[in-house]
């Protein structure tokens, strides 16, 4: 992963924040209220696993809403690199990764996200 300038990092964070705000606004009101209580943080990449795009730092218990409120961490440099390599859209990948990690907060797996139209 190449070095990122502070200006590029700030621009990436601003883009990601707009995506998160738009994604929250699109959620059904009951989910939106709960989701707004789960902080979303941005980091460049995971120190433990530089390949992962995001992480839900609370407990993931299938079928149960986590008692912890996260946080959700999105690894923006890793997401950006994946998008460049795979010709994917950064905003789409941020949205998808955010929803995936938010799903963990609610105790949902991929199928649950798909059933709710959040995939």
Report on this model:
- The protein has 119 residues and is mostly helical.
- It has one domain: Zincin-like, CATH 3.30.2010.20.
- The chain is 52% helix and 9% strand.
- The protein has helices at 6-26, 29-35, 76-86, 90-106, 110-115, and strands at residues 40-43, 54-56, 72-75.
- A 3-stranded mixed sheet has the order 1-3-2.
- The longest helix has 21 residues, at 6-26.
Features:
single chain; 119 residues; mainly alpha; Zincin-like; three-stranded mixed sheet; 5 helices; 3 strands; 52% helix; globular
Can you give me a brief rundown of this structure?
With 119 residues, the protein is mainly α. It has five helices and three strands, in the order ααβββααα. It has a three-stranded mixed sheet with strand order 1-3-2.
Q: Catalogue the unreliable spans.
A: none
Strand line-up across the major sheet: 1-3-2
Number of helices: 5
Strand content: 5-15%
CATH topology: Zincin-like
Shape: globular
Structural class: mainly alpha
Overall tally of domains: 1
The total beta strand count reads 3
Q: Which class in CATH terms?
A: Alpha Beta
The run of helices and strands is HHEEEHHH
Second CATH tier, the architecture: 2-Layer Sandwich
Question: Please, what is the oligomeric state?
Answer: single chain
The main pleated sheet reads as:
3 strands, mixed
